């Protein structure tokens, strides 16, 4: 069973890498002010991947919580840490984000409003925090390997 899951996961990850590479290349080759379609497509693809990642964290954490609730209550509570961490980081990001309207003389769109700017800023800060945590965890893992 685990061999099948490993094979399916490996294939799925390679497909996602290929799609990501395709969208990245098409974004840099075809994106321009006259042709914003690839920018929108790439952002939509990124948004879908973000929803899948957050959904997987929440679903698997809750699944692990329910599995361990009766047999190991302490371990069950530890499985909720990813959800709490996600909530704390997003609360920090949302409270840190600015909703100040940007001064862009050439922009005539409708998205330069406080609500959109606040959510955009929160998303960017959340991405920066998790990127930093990922880099730190990689560094920690590599440095810890040296001392073993």
Written overview of the protein:
- The protein is an all-alpha fold and 148 residues long.
- It folds into two domains: 1-74; 80-148.
- Helices cover 78% and strands 0% of the residues.
- The protein has five helices and no strands.
- The chain has helices at residues 2-30, 37-68, 73-78, 81-96, 114-146.
- Helix 1 (2-30) packs antiparallel against helix 2 (37-68).
- The longest helix has 33 residues, at 114-146.
- The radius of gyration is 20 Å and the shape is extended.
- The mean pLDDT is 85.
Query: Strand fraction band?
Result: under 5%
Shape: extended
The total beta strand count reads 0
Structural class: mainly alpha
Major β-sheet profile: none
Q: Helix content range of the residues, please?
A: over 70%
What count of helical segments does DSSP give? Answer: 5
Radius of gyration, in Å, reads 20 Å
SSE blueprint:
Elements: H1 2-30, H2 37-68, H3 73-78, H4 81-96, H5 114-146
Helix pairs in contact: 1-2, 4-5
Give me a quick take on this structure.
This protein has 148 residues and is mainly α. It has helices spanning 2-30, 37-68, 73-78, 81-96, 114-146. The chain is extended.
Structure keywords:
148 residues; mainly alpha; 2 domains; 5 helices
């Amino acid at each position: 069973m685990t061999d099948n899951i490993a094979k399916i996961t490996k294939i799925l990850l390679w497909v996602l890498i290929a799609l990501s590479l395709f969208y990245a290349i098409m974004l840099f080759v075809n994106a321009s002010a006259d042709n914003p379609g690839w920018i929108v497509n790439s952002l939509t693809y990124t948004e879908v991947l973000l929803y899948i990642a957050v959904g997987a964290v929440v679903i698997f954490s809750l699944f692990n919580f329910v599995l361990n609730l009766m047999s190991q209550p302490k371990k069950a509570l530890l499985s909720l840490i990813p959800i709490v961490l996600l909530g704390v980081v997003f609360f920090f990001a949302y409270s840190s984000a600015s909703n100040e309207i940007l001064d862009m003389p050439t922009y005539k769109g409708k998205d330069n409003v406080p609500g959109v700017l606040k959510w955009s800023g929160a998303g960017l800060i959340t991405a920066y925090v998790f990127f930093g945590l990922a880099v730190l965890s990689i560094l920690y893992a590599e440095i810890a390997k040296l001392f073993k």
